[in-house]
Amino acid sequence: MAGPLPLGDPAPPDGMIPASAVDGADSRSLAFYLHVPFCRVRCGYCDFNTYTATELRGAKQSDYADEAAAEVAFAARALQQSGLPHREVETIFFGGGTPTLLPASDLVRMLEAVRAHHGVSPDAEITTEANPDSVDAGYLRQLADAGFTRVSFGMQSAVPRVLATLERTHDPARVPMVVEWAKAAGLQVSVDLIYGTPGETLDDWETSVDAALATQPDHISAYSLIVEQGTKLARQIKSGFVALPDEDLQADMYELIDERLASAGFSWYEVSNWSTSRSSRSRHNLAYWQSQDWWGVGPGAHSHVGGVRWWNVKHPAAYAGRMADGVSPAVGRETLDGDARELERVLLGARTRDGIQIKSLASEARVAVAGLIADDLVNAKAALAGTIELTLRGRLLADVVVRRLTA
Known about the structure:
One of its GO terms (cellular component) is cytoplasm. One of its GO terms (biological process) is porphyrin-containing compound biosynthetic process. The mean pLDDT is about 95. The strands form three sheets. Strands 7-8-6-5-4-3-2-1-9 form a nine-stranded mixed sheet, with helices on both faces. It is globular, with a radius of gyration of 21 Å. By secondary structure, the protein is α/β, with parallel strands linked by helices. It folds into two domains: about 270 residues, Aldolase class I (TIM Barrel, Alpha-Beta Barrel), CATH 3.20.20; about 70 residues, no CATH class. It contains 15 helices and 14 strands.
């Protein structure tokens, strides 16, 4: 289970959103994130809000689709009564946990609830995460037939020893099969990798990158392993059982995957994400990075509408109780002021290939651009054309760039 929820103001039981969130809503897209908080086992590095069967304390996986559908309906009422304009949903993402632990029919039922209560754009991107051992060809066809357009497989590594350290349970030989099944069903495919696992070598990482490329996906995400407080991995490192990931080695790993993917025809569009074309970028993730509106459904899910953020109760049993009572599952919220929204805009925008328009920055930040170019953190040609675009070195030091643009 994840750490404590953030502090904030109490969230109203009726889910009403402040009037300030209505401003500019017509120019923002609407997305839905549906959190499925169930896993067969808990991976030692994970701090997501997930639960194994022994941790549910009365909540039932079999009831979850109806509970999530109830929040989807609640969202429609809250948005309308708060004065937000009706907008068809542009992207939907099922994350977890392992969404595909539920029957495909449950995911379809949750998707149909979004269609019924909000409307879904005809060209919407609809994605689910999946573990390679949690789906078969029939499952993926059922999702595609219902309108899913994309699946993101948690491959993480192709090296059994590395997977064992991460406590991932799938056979890496299964990954090519599930990717082929997804393609045959007409789904776009993303493959997720993790680098910097304790004991992982550069050769191990090269093996994993080459194995991912061999499946010919449309999209690849690669995230450096972060040791989160409270996880089993953090305890193992503290006790000396495993070594802390080496930052220099992680940088070498990033450079390796960027070079390999570029050679294979992929382009980076966010620090940790590469795609074969603009159309295979994750539109849902772009909605986050561009501060669009999204409603997060499920235990511990976070939402954002017009600079207002809120977060749901964490435990599935508490969530089920809120939905049964017909009240908002949110327990806290915050309204970002102008400075916070600008910081977030720069923080997120700087990480993307499309970058930030220099003219949109404060005068102090514009002065900093020359130094960022001189330090090879920002692409000089793009800057002359008016855009902040990170170099490879800048991607490795993205936090430095953001600090200098917001100092």
